Amino acid sequence: MDRYLVISSDGHAGLPPERYRDYLEARHHALFDETVQKEIKAREEHEKRFLIDDFNTKWRARVGDGLEGAWDGTIRNRVMDGDGVAAEVLFPDGITERNAPPFGADIGLRPNAERAELQWAGARAHNRWLAEFCRDDPHRRIGLAVIPALYDLDETMKEIRWAADNGLKGVFFPALTDGYDMYNHTKYHKVWAMLQEANLPLHFHSGAAPAYDTTQPGWIGTYLCEFAFWMTRPLWGLTFGGVFEEFPRLKVCFTEAGGEFWFPWIKQLMDIRASAKHTSGKLGDYYANMSMKPSEYFARNVWIGCSALPDEETTQSYYDIGIDRILWGTDYPHPEGTWPNTAEKMFDSLGGLPEDDIQRMLGTNALEVYDLDEKALWDIAARIGPKRESLVKQAAE
Amino acid sequence: MDRYLVISSDGHAGLPPERYRDYLEARHHALFDETVQKEIKAREEHEKRFLIDDFNTKWRARVGDGLEGAWDGTIRNRVMDGDGVAAEVLFPDGITERNAPPFGADIGLRPNAERAELQWAGARAHNRWLAEFCRDDPHRRIGLAVIPALYDLDETMKEIRWAADNGLKGVFFPALTDGYDMYNHTKYHKVWAMLQEANLPLHFHSGAAPAYDTTQPGWIGTYLCEFAFWMTRPLWGLTFGGVFEEFPRLKVCFTEAGGEFWFPWIKQLMDIRASAKHTSGKLGDYYANMSMKPSEYFARNVWIGCSALPDEETTQSYYDIGIDRILWGTDYPHPEGTWPNTAEKMFDSLGGLPEDDIQRMLGTNALEVYDLDEKALWDIAARIGPKRESLVKQAAE
């Protein structure tokens, strides 16, 4: 085989907001009609403070209708073919400031007691649309159900069951638990048992953070310094809570931590915290429920979705994290992703590494995470995958 | 001079709780009388879940009345002489689960709208006692005023002024801002201006964190993985908020991050976040208010109080942070500190390094941070400081 199999761990898909109406339970239509334009406008206003308009406008002009692959399967497959991507993991929020599911069931998923029921309704609307979208091309589309898990575990279990029955391949949970029980709480064990049994990997994705005062200087820099923390916080709760000990086949993916140097640190941090003898002497035998080191659970239960890589050299980070933990991704159609320069960026971040390592990170690791039709994917890769020679680095380069 | 000058960056002092009554405004006495025993009991109960009783009991038996140096100046000086410590920075909370100022004005300082006034009263009671304690031996005791800064800036400015007028040498602010304005907010500029002008360094100390469910497995491991984050969060707000740009002589100390590997990471993280061109292209020119790299502000405005070091090798971390940023500390009288084995632990963490580097970290850096009588301190060091030869490492070791 002279081509790589590429499975992007980080894709975003979603309808234009007004079209979610068709997937929303009728009892929420009145409120939806009343609020959808306001939600769109608020999102645009927020994004104006957040994104450089000029940057976005230029970028959009250049990529043309490719953005509409966020909800249009034909366009999406055209883009994927061009990028050499055989299949994609699909999170919500197609185009950053558009295409978000209604009522806060978006990539910034965060519990909000006041609109718990609405957030669930928004999540279900997205999940129902996404299941259709994935059914249209089940090999290439690895859909994740949006699960506002913290309010109600019965509802959570029901929706996970629905997702599994309807061809979705994983779940996306809120990383911020705010006032709700954190993921080390034993009440979640039945959820972990179900995810393990159904082979549905649990996903956290960067984005959510506590509210910032966007009128103040430095709030974006503050966000950039800590967004990886907010996404990763569930990791040590699960690890030290003994969840990976109890559920050895539970799979957890952390996606788009923007600069993968973060996870080598965190892996090291957890091991240090589990071994600082003097401190633990004071603090008690808190890891009695763990038979392995945190980094050993990490090497078995955790995968890192790597996309939106910074300019800096990250090759060593892949090895520090573990080549078999890395799931490369494009983040299509977000502007910080690789598209429409995927081939070039793939070369920048992977070119010159051993072919086996490249293949693991680009695609075969994902085969181990998700329940996929390998034969079908290799057939697609044979047609559109990047040529192996394209990632060979000449001595001169 | 054949001895080192040692100034510990991390000491704790506080009265037995019931004795704070004498320093508390009379209008709070009734409530104090009603709650002080409950506060003591609640603290003991909490610590029982948190600390290994056996560990603490044994440790206490070994150290004897040395613990009472938390409030007894004669005992404290005896311990300091034995440890070779000429002077100490004094945070609240003498003995971990005792000696905390009332009404939450303790080392876990965290805003709480419902008892803002009481927390201020507790802080003022501590500050008034501490000012007395420091006046008894003004060269050796570098007292920090507890400032529950977030509620009311007029009150904050008034107390800072009081602290400066009464011989205190720095301030201790809450690291967690919870719902209150974060430290990048420009409303704090007048506070920074006052601290800069009065040469009162701003301190954050580890301890505070969001509430955990202490009935659940893994909560201590969770706390250990993130307590350094909670303490350090103000750093990127101040940096990216342009505070160090605006107040180039403002000094900020972060104390007891338990394993100093944390700060080399954070310094690197901030620089990466300030230079990730593609992401900043999307996110805007958020560092327009900074003329230097975050690590350059760090090298000018920030010091790291290093105590409670883990067993792991940390020498390289000192150099990664910057030898001129390190303020060595004993954490006396906390059980995770160096006392009563200070000489041995000092040797473990510093032995064999160049003498000039050792002297900077042990004491002369602190001379640059605080307004101190250098001559008086060198005289004390000449009498009780550790011998320089004690930190020489033989080739055989």
UniProtKB/TrEMBL annotation, chains A, B:
<dbReference type="InterPro" id="IPR032465">
    <property type="entry name" value="ACMSD"/>
</dbReference>
<dbReference type="GO" id="GO:0005737">
    <property type="term" value="C:cytoplasm"/>
</dbReference>
<dbReference type="Pfam" id="PF04909">
    <property type="entry name" value="Amidohydro_2"/>
</dbReference>
<keyword id="KW-0378">Hydrolase</keyword>
<dbReference type="InterPro" id="IPR032466">
    <property type="entry name" value="Metal_Hydrolase"/>
</dbReference>
<dbReference type="InterPro" id="IPR006680">
    <property type="entry name" value="Amidohydro-rel"/>
</dbReference>
<dbReference type="GO" id="GO:0016831">
    <property type="term" value="F:carboxy-lyase activity"/>
</dbReference>
<keyword id="KW-0456">Lyase</keyword>
<feature type="domain" description="Amidohydrolase-related">
    <location>
        <begin position="113"/>
        <end position="372"/>
    </location>
</feature>
<dbReference type="GO" id="GO:0016787">
    <property type="term" value="F:hydrolase activity"/>
</dbReference>
<dbReference type="GO" id="GO:0019748">
    <property type="term" value="P:secondary metabolic process"/>
</dbReference>
<protein>
    <submittedName>
        <fullName>Amidohydrolase family protein</fullName>
    </submittedName>
</protein>
